[in-house]
Amino acid sequence: MEISLTQKAPQAHPWEQPFWKPVHGKEGVFTYLILIHVLSVIGLILFPLPSLKVLGMTLLFIAFGGLGTTVCYHRMLAHKTLKTHPAVEQFLIFWAVFNGSGHPASWVAYHRLHHAVTDLPEDISSPKQGGFWWAHLRWLYQTEPADKKHWAPEMTGGIYKIWGWAETPVIILSIFIGLILGFGWMGFFWMGAMRLVYSLHMQCLVNSLTHLGEAKEGGDSSINVWWLGPFQLTAWGENWHKNHHTHAGSARLGLRWFQTDIGWYFICLLEAVGLAHSVKRPRIS
């Protein structure tokens, strides 16, 4: 039987690539991931236990970064479930970038794409397609960037475009912040790379771990993972991921009184002092 010369071979899925091979244009992301992990291992060997000052500053940076990602990037920019004073928005964007979450247009475009095609082959971060490690880390450097003009058109200009340019300088500042603030090499490792690695994996677990449920017909595989919350610090609330997929238009992720959601409490505080408005609450029967 002859094979037509015009017949195209089936296109390989991105998760079928060698794990060490980034797509063109994402070599920098791959290098960054290797760098912070190598520095973290060195830091753990040299300084296995930080001083209380260094630990306190590290946790503070993680806290601000977590709020920037969950409140600003996720709930406000991606899902438009609240609005804040412009100064608050830019403050939170800085900490999200400083936390290694990327610039806002990129994060929002990826997330909206995820919701549009959850667990389908087009879902670039689904463990149902590429497995746990694909959803956890590999997609970050082995998929083409999400189309910002399609998925986040309102974020392709203005101040959001400036954050795209500022991302690399802010990440360099983030890595070296311990030395810059005078905390020495212990501060360099703990407040820089080790913090970034911790924050990275806590955020990536939302893509991987909280999508390991059994997908029901017409639904997705998202699940709530109660024990993940305390490890996420102020990003606590992202672990209620099934809640989020069920009520994506809600600024509140912990829907029951016992589902701790620090991001939601922070939003309520902002609303109480007049720095947040148009907060969308869930409609629970």
Q: What is the topological layout?
A:
Elements: H1 27-46, H2 52-78, E1 83-84, H3 86-98, H4 104-116, H5 127-130, H6 132-142, H7 148-151, H8 158-180, H9 184-208, H10 241-246, H11 262-272, E2 276-277
Antiparallel strand pairs: 1-2
Described by strand count, sense and barrel closure, the largest sheet is: 2 strands, antiparallel
Give the strand tally. 2
Q: What radius of gyration results from the CA coordinates?
A: 20 Å
* Structural domain count: 1
Query: Which of globular, elongated, flat, extended, rod-shaped describes the shape?
Result: globular
The averaged pLDDT comes out at 93
Poorly predicted runs of 5 or more residues: 1-9
Number of helices: 11
Kindly describe this structure.
With 285 residues, the chain is an all-alpha fold. It has one domain (19-277). 55% of the residues lie in helices and 1% in strands. The protein contains eleven helices and two strands; from the N terminus they run ααβαααααααααβ. A two-stranded antiparallel sheet has the order 1-2. The longest helix has 27 residues, at 52-78. The termini are far apart. 43% of the residues are buried. Residues 1-9 have low confidence and may be disordered.
In short:
The protein is mostly helical and 285 residues long.
Task: Spell out the key features of this protein.
single chain; 285 residues; mainly alpha; two-stranded antiparallel sheet; 11 helices; 2 strands; 1% strand; globular; disordered N terminus
